[in-house]
Amino acid sequence: MSETITVVFDGEVFRPDSPPNLEPNTRYTITVESVEPVVKDNAWDVLEAMVGTVEAPSDWSSQHDHYLYGTPKHNTENNE
């Protein structure tokens, strides 16, 4: 049986990122390899990729205080 488990070493023990599918109280041999974090994009690229993926009212940006804090909506019509 072979299973790959990603873990974090906290200085004393290995802590798995998710519960492993291993039998408790069983001895295992582990091989340790360093895993470099994969960073492909900067924050702007991540935000750009998320544009349009959140469902929200069409006036979300102009009425954000109303949706976040419950304040009355602002009148956005031009009174010229």
Describe the sheet with the most strands: 2 strands, antiparallel
Alpha-beta classification: alpha+beta
Helix content: 10-25%
In percent, how much strand structure appears in the residues?
A: 5-15%
Shape, per Cα inertia axes: elongated
Instruction: Kindly report the spatial arrangement of strands forming the biggest sheet.
Output: 1-2
> Could you tell me the radius of gyration in angstroms?
24 Å
Average of per-residue pLDDT values:
84
Got a strand count? 2
Sketch the topology as an H/E string, one letter per element. Answer: EEHH
Number of helices: 2
Give the end-to-end Cα distance, rounded to a whole number of Å. 75 Å
Low-confidence stretches: none
Structure description:
This protein has two helices and two strands. With about 80 residues, the chain is of the alpha+beta class. The protein is elongated and about 70 Å long. The mean pLDDT is about 85.
Quick synopsis:
It contains 2 helices and 2 strands.
